[in-house]
Every structure is written in C-alpha cells, then in structure tokens.
Amino acid sequence: GRIFLSGCFRVEFRDFFIADELNSLAYSFWTLSYFFCAYSWQWTDLQSNCNISMVWYTPLIASLPPWWRLIQCLRRYKDSNEKVHLANAAKYASSILATIIGAIRRMYPSKAMDIVFILTCIINSSYTTTWDIKMDWGLCQTQSKHLFLRDELVFKRGFYYMACLIDIVLRFSWIMNFVPMRLNGAILGFILAVLEGYRRIQWNVFRLENEHLNNCGQYRAIKEIPLPFALRETVKQPDEQDE
After folding, report:
1. pTM, 2 dp
2. Measured between alpha carbons, how far is residue 162 from residues 40, 88, 220 in Å?
3. Which residue spans traverse the membrane (predicted)?
4. How many other C-beta atoms can be found within 10 angstroms of the C-beta atom of residue 3?
C-alpha cells in the first residue's frame, strides 16, 4: 500500500527496497495483461486476440515499478534536499523511457527505431550499472586499500569482483535480442527474466551489506561502543562501606 501511494509518505528503507524488487518483475508486469486478456477471451485464439506486444497499455503497466521509485526519489529529495535523489530519479526515468521506446519499436519496427532503442538501452544500462556498483553497493572508492572496492568488506574480495562482472553482463542482457538465435522470442524473454531474478538476488545481498555498514558508520546502528565514553560513578554511602 505504501508503494502504491509513493510520495504520500516519508520514504523508509523498506519502501524503496521492496519497490526496487518490483523493478525486477517487469516481465511479470508485462505479461499480467496477457493473463487478463486470456480470461476475457476464454482462452480462445490467443495468438490473434492477445498479442500483448501490440497493446499500448502493456508498457505502461511494466513502467509502474520504476515510476513508483521515481516518485519515491522525488519525495526523498523534498524531505532531505539532497540532490543525489534527483540523480536517482533520473535513473528510473531512463528505465521508463527504455520500456516505452521498446514497446514503440515492437509496434512500429524500423531501422530508426532500432537505433533509438539501442541508444536508450545503452544509456539506461550504463546508468543503472554504475549506480548499482558505486551507490547501492558502495564500491569503487578511490581511496580504498582494496582495488575498486572499499576499505570495510564483509565477504572475500573475489565475491565483489565477480558480482560486479555479473551485474554488468546482466544489465546489458538486452543485447541478446539482437543476436541471431534459434530460440523463440517468448522463451528468450523468460530466460532473461530468470537471469534478472538472479541479478536482483545478488543485488540484495550487497545492498543490505552496504546499508548495514552505513548504519554502523553513522551510528544509526551500533556494532561497538566508540571510545571514550562517560561512566557514571556510584558513590557508596557511609553505611554501605565494608567493615
């Protein structure tokens, strides 16, 4: 309910974390219209009656998760006046733009639309990948003693390098749509959706790790008591002195 009403409440970690999860369910949102269409036509001649790639409202439904996150970012900027939230909002705006242009390309295929789609996806994938690694995971710190990472690590360094490589590859997985393959388009879409699910699970692990380290570093959560700290000395009364 809080996600549906994004912008009406002060954004907490649970709000944007769950909204980010929904961003990886774009395939499910995309096929949701197929589900309702199949029932409305009583599962008859679905190939012609429910060609969802040609339905105008389908990309709008798929754009709901990044739209919710965009609204949350604007609300966080309003509450904190930190411009980083505007940059994050622009990231989700690029995701919405890529989804809409992808739908237009399917409805009105042409070489020009292919070029526009590729350029939009390159911008979106580069933006989101950089944000994943730098902002969400807190890596690529220039002064870190670990190359391209950060000083404080929970896991072994190799896990971070592998996670970054996988994140980059899967963020650009849309390129598979332009590679000649014998796979059916629907099957390829399902495979890419499963890979996106894995990417989001991986993102969750390092995003929560970075949030925990930030909480501890800013004393929003305490893992150890910083020194020095004040002690209240208890003075014994005369009748409490040992004999």
Report:
1. 0.81
2. 46, 25, 30
3. 24-42, 54-71, 158-175
4. 19
